Amino acid sequence: MTAVKAVGAVVNFLGYYKIPLYIMVRPFDGFYEMKYMKEGTLKISFLNLILVLVSYAINDQYASLIVNPQNPLTLNSLWYWVMIVTALILFCVSNWSVTSLMDGEGKLKEIFMAVTYAMTPLVLTIIPATILSNFLSQEEAGFYFMIMSVGVAYFVFLVFCGLVVVHNYGAAKAVLSIVLTFFALLVIVFLITLLLTLWQQLYVFGFSIYTELMFR
């Protein structure tokens, strides 16, 4: 009975997860259904994001020393997660800002969903590559990097397809929007850094004045 329930749970999950898997096979049709047929949900987006974060944490902790030079005892997965989530948010906001000026049809929610749905290859490759790394010799480490590279390359390709469909762009306009997105991202990072620096200086200045007044 337990086995039947387990199989049923797997079947239900695969049915719920069908759009991300379909996107891997037919990306343009899959993203079209996600956007225009309202097949996509934020639940799957956050699930994919969580799976990627957990997968990278497992990879950092348990990948063979042959392919992973990091010391697992000093590794901070939480900081790594913050960096990934921050980069994702900045990319989505930057892309939305740029495409709003380029007649893009995608909403911020749809851009986020397209990018997170495109993470499915990462979900399917990181853990197998991590397991495989523990059975490889130094000479065979190339297989690990090949699997990881395929996952990342297919992720980038799916992001491109997703942005084409979400914004209803042609290939050339989509490439231009992505280039401008990274430029806008750098500008946003620069402005945030500048604001944080100014805030720190104001805090130090204010605290110094407060200290002077307290000792007089």
How many beta-strand runs?
Answer: 0
Order of helices and strands: HHHHHHHHH
The average pLDDT score comes to 86
Residue share in β-strands:
under 5%
Structural class: mainly alpha
| Major beta-sheet overview | none
Determine the fraction of residues in helical runs and give it as a percent range: over 70%
Oligomer: single chain
Low-confidence stretches: none
End-to-end CA span: 78 Å
The number of helical runs is: 9
Number of domains: 1
**Integer-rounded radius of gyration:** 22 Å
Described by the principal axes of the CA atoms, the overall outline is: globular
Relevant terms:
globular, mainly alpha, 0% strand, single chain, 9 helices, 216 residues
Task: Write up what this structure looks like.
This protein has 216 residues and is mostly helical. It has one domain. It is 80% helix and 0% strand. The chain is globular, with a radius of gyration of 22 Å. The N and C termini lie far apart (78 Å). The model has no long low-confidence stretch (mean pLDDT 86).
Give the gist of this structure.
This protein has 216 residues and is mostly helical. The chain has helices spanning 2-16, 18-25, 27-36, 42-62, 77-100, 108-117, 120-133, 141-167, 171-214.
